[in-house]
Amino acid sequence: MIRLILYLVCAALPLALSCYIYKNSSPRFVRVWRRLVRSENARKLVGKVLTLYIAMLHIVLYAVSPKDMGLIASTMIMLALFSTNRSLRLLEWIRSDKRCFAAIGFIAIACSFYGPLMSTGLTIAAILVASLFMPNPALKEEQTDAQELAVDDKTFTAQFFA
What we know:
mainly alpha, 77% helix, 0% strand, globular
């Protein structure tokens, strides 16, 4: 029973996080967004948290249904993202192209509605949520380490998600 509850939490977490965090302009989140623009280490933390979440997701999915065929494809994705630099390149690539983001989102939804590939859909959804934390490439080019962006919080949030 506990495994099924963990499964439901893991399935709902990407949706809940994206609804809560995306375009949240409270001062706390603006500080996080500014830190993500400024610091490479903050962006690496996103890649490491993504890797840990996908590993935890695999443990839960294997405990719920060990014969799931989607676990094989999802495990290949997990192993490919085990390198932080590789996962950061993937997340920045997804973040830079809106059509790519939409296409991968459609694949995640399609995989989630087909039972044997639900674990792959959940893994792809987690990658999409993590890519929301990557700063806009144009905003990242403007930023230098010595200079703080001198704009108000609403404008910064709009630029971050542009």
